[in-house]
Amino acid sequence: MEYHSTMTMQRFIGVDLAWSEGRRGREANETGVAVLDTTGRVVDAGWTRTLTDTIARIQAAAGSESALLFIDAPLVVNNPTGQRPCENQVGQRYGRWKVSANSTNLVSPRLAGVTLRTKLQTLGWTYSDGRTGPPVTGLAMSECYPYTTLVGALELGYSHERPAYKRKPASMNTLAWRSARAAACDDLIKRLATLRHADPALVLESHPTTRHLITEASPLIDTAYKHREDLIDALLCAWTAALWHRHGFARCQVLGPTTPISADLATIIAPARLEQRRPHTHLA
């Protein structure tokens, strides 16, 4: 049976988190943050550098409203070694579209997502693993992976493989790659702009920062390009949160183990075409 939310969540927040918290003498990479309202209007968009600033931006975005926060970073890590089941299943379900996930475990050096989750929980946020469907009210956070949105959401039209807007092919030289990824990024932005007509909507023109994505060509310089890429991924996270809240299991699947291994279950909520789903289960 198709799920449709009553839209009690008022904000959909996307965070493309820098996985490392930085260290003495070297600050963390930028984190992209984007916030949508129930109409798809972008009410905030930008970047942070520290977890403290990221949390402040999230808190300000949520305010006194109910909010659903989707984060591109591992939020729950329980496995001593190897790859989390949800990461393994990204490759199993989306590998045909050239989408896979990095491995994360308890000895991984980049676990800023775990720190972010625990800090937000002390501020009243709950972690939602998705097994019972989208939360309908309150302050809830989940893990997502923008690549699965790109190939799993029919609206974006990537029916054969992911766009080449990052991850340089080994066979391509750097100069050629910079031009190719900029072209792929510009095409992706055009596709994102069509979501103004989608359900749920994403209206890039509604905020000055995201409007620049449309009006300015993607840069070739690495640092400027990464700056843009982080914001795009944050927008994808926010829109995925809205999609999950609006359509639930009708449009998304939950990747992860079918039986809990701790109080918090490591899952990734991923938009999915029919052929990307594991039959007869919500947990893929």
Describe the structure.
The chain is α/β, with parallel strands linked by helices. 33% of the residues lie in helices and 14% in strands. It has seven helices and eight strands. Strand 2 (31-36) and strand 3 (42-48) form a beta hairpin. The longest helix is centred in the last third of the chain and has 26 residues, at 222-247. It is globular and about 45 Å long. 44% of the residues are buried. The mean pLDDT is 92.
For the structure shown, list the relevant keywords.
284 residues; six-stranded mixed β-sheet; two-stranded antiparallel ribbon; single chain; 7 helices; alpha/beta; 33% helix; globular
Gyration radius, rounded? 18 Å
Cα end-to-end separation: 18 Å
Helix share bin: 25-40%
- Which stretches are low in confidence, meaning pLDDT under 50 for 5 or more residues running? none
Multimeric status of the protein: single chain
Topology, please?
Elements: E1 11-16, E2 31-36, E3 42-48, H1 51-62, E4 67-71, H2 85-94, H3 112-121, E5 126-127, E6 139-143, H4 146-152, H5 174-193, H6 208-215, H7 222-247, E7 252-255, E8 268-271
Parallel strand pairs: 1-4, 4-6, 5-6
Antiparallel strand pairs: 1-2, 2-3, 7-8
Helix pairs in contact: 5-7
